[in-house]
Amino acid sequence: MRSIADTLAEMTLEEKAALCSGQDFWNTRPIERLDVPAIMLSDGPHGLRKQPDGPGADHAGLLASLPATCFPTAAGLASSWDTALLTRIGEALGDEAQSENVSVVLGPGTNIKRSPLCGRNFEYFSEDPVLSSRLASAHIQGVQSKGVGASLKHFAANNQEHRRMSVDARIDERTLREIYLASFEEAVKVAKPWTVMCAYNRMNGPYCSEHSRLLTQILRKEWGFDGIVVSDWAAVNDRVAGLEAGLELEMPTSGDTRTRQIVNAVESGALSEGVLDQAVERLLAFIERAHTQDRTDTDVDLDEHHQLARHVARESMVLLKNDGALPLSTNQRVAVIGEFAERPRFQGGGSSHVNPYRVETPLEALNATGHKVQYAKGFEIDRDDTDQALLEDAVAHAQRADVAVLFLGLPERYESEGYDRTHLDIPANQRALIDAVHAVQPNTVVVLANGSPVAMPWLSKVSAVLEAYLGGQAVGAAVADLLFGEVSPCGKLAETFPHRLEDTPCYLHFPGTGDVVEYAEGIFVGYRFFDAKNVAPLFPFGHGLSYTTFTYQDLTLSEARISADDTLDVTVRVTNSGQRAGKEIVQLYVSDHTHAVPVAPKALRGFEKVHLEAGESATLRFTLARRDFAYFDVDTNDWRVPTGSFSISLGASSADLRLTQELYVSGDAPRWPALDRNTLVGDLSGIEAAQRILHDALAPLAAQNPLLTGFADDPSDDHSDDMIEAMMRYLPLRALVSFTQGAFDEAQLERLLQRLEQSRPSDGA
Ligand code: BGC
To answer: What's residue 94's pLDDT?
Structure first.
């Protein structure tokens, strides 16, 4: 076989340019004379959407694709908080892709859920970057273990559908690093996806498809990405600028237009051939990697995958409320109400739309349990207004039964790729149904099908709510298993459910004005905002009920004091204190009390899902490291650990912390500020050399000047000095002259500045 270097050397300029764009909608361009094959990319992410070869291709999920297993979408998967499960789904997807000769599955999507309104939230994991990135990692590892590449998307800050191909997401650097990029970072570093898909939108100016800081500086150089960047479908603005910025592959094809543009740019000297060669070399390596791992003879057992989809759906659904109505008991007469029971919404609209090889509806599955089930349609999914006859029939059913189970949710037209929602409500006919059933039946359970949070002003009228999200093709069986208590619910929310849209962090800044959206809420996304503002959510991040109960004991930290580069082991004992087996998702939050920079009250830094039989206990261990205590320091463009006290809390949700321990962290050495007459005295505190110089200069004056007592040879530790200390902290050096009434004069100030400057290390460290 020819080496990559030899192939590259033999390629003509045209061939090289042509390889940088697709051959058609889904394939790369082959070069037959050099034995470079075409490889196929297909959506993703929660099921394979392979479209047959030929013209019937689209990026909107409109046209047919081959039958495949449809798993729950990412919103549901994330609620499992189960990385091993995500890996299993990845493996199943990898097998299905192999059997269909697909080399790359386009996903997972790991964009942060900035607003519950984003039309694609059903395809994204979480509002929290640690959860998001770890789940994405696990998914990628599963897919790639099968010799199929993943495409981590959409890089970056694609957090809305509104004007998605032109909007400029304006994000401050710290927020970008701590929230929006962090959601990709660990997945890139740990799982090493074969490809990363750049987003449609612009970010702080340039289009992501030609953003060299994003695609080369951060992704490749800082994070060590060694795959190829592929454009989102039609995301390319300027192909040559994209190539220079680090975009190797444009998809889909644009005929020969881009080839000509690249060739012309090289011939005119506008683009160095070296840049093109580097992209081509990476593309050849990528194609070879894919091609040598082709295993079209992979056997897929779709029935087995259906069972996996059922298991995954059970692990993903979240029991939001339960006054005791669930689990249902075998002798209850159950009125099953709502068209979603027979026409379930189990996946989202757009490019991720899978053609499921089989669908199990809730109605079928509930009937199959053998329990006493009566069905009434109640409302029509395709309209918002109430059909009186359907409503009355539903009420009659509810009245005759012991319990009513209402299948409600968002119709597909309410949320999809391509547009955002404008409100959080479920349709009016469903709300009317709740009211009418509530009037005759106190025992009512709601099962929700939706890709993102809905408001629930009706919550007090129902006894239980099971959030099924978009549960995949086995949704019916999974719902039946949970309702009848075959297994205990064990999912927890990976996003906050607000009471009202007005309570959400970016309410005033979403979706922006014209082509600009300011991320003015900064790092305060999701629970970080609700915590910081003390706004009560409808259901907090991390919330989810079970049919059993868990207790937390014995939180231990390996050390009470650590340094910035140490690791910290945390253990906690969790016991299933209820009567039946169940799974608990244990969450670890870190709170930074140092006041170095504004922070959210707490941040998720670890999680673990554990299965426990009734009465069983387990000790869980977490290891925290530098990054778990750090913030992104924009001055040094690096992560920085502040000094001071932190606390570590373990809990069952972000609002249900069970145990907390304090910790002292000796952070990174303080950095020298920029030095001039306006440098604040307080900004030099903690820097030993600077303190010595200040002391030398000011101690002689301390006796006469109360403001300077802190610099005396023998400073008093009288707490009445606190006020003086505070005043000094914010004092510009120049003000020493005025406040000493000239005793410390301009010449001394000049000398002080010179000495400080001489002692300041060149890198400021
Ligand atoms: C979507 C991508 C998808 C691609 C191919 C685009 O519209 O944003 O997520 O992978 O189409 O279908």
So the answer is: 98
Element spanning 606, H or E = strand 603-612
Helix (H) or strand (E) holding 437: helix 428-440
Among 604, 656, 597, which residue's Cα sits nearest to residue 631?
Answer: 597
Q: Which of 145, 35, 738, 126 is nearest to 469 (CA)?
A: 126
- pLDDT(720) > 60: no
Does the pLDDT of residue 669 top 60, yes or no? Answer: yes
Token reading at 441? 């039946």
C-alpha 649/C-alpha 161 separation (Å) is 36
Q: Sheet holding 464-467: strands in order across?
A: 318-322, 464-467, 444-449, 403-409, 333-337, 372-376
Ligand 1 centre from 578 Cα, in Å?
A: 45
- Looking at the chain, the whole-number percentage of residues with pLDDT higher than 90 is 92
Residues recognised as catalytic: 232
- CB under 8 Å to 613, separation ≥6 — which residues? 576, 581
Return the ligand 1 atom nearest residue 59 CA: 12
Q: Whose CA is nearest to atom 11 of ligand 1?
A: 59
Nearest CA to ligand 1 atom 5: 59
pLDDT of residue 718: 60
Q: Of ligand 1's atoms, which has the minimum distance to the CA of residue 44?
A: 10
With H, G, I as helix, E, B as strand and everything else as coil, classify residue 465: strand
| Beta partners for residue 374, in sequence order | 335
pTM of the model: 0.96
pLDDT at 722: 77
Closest CA to 593 of 662, 499, 513: 662
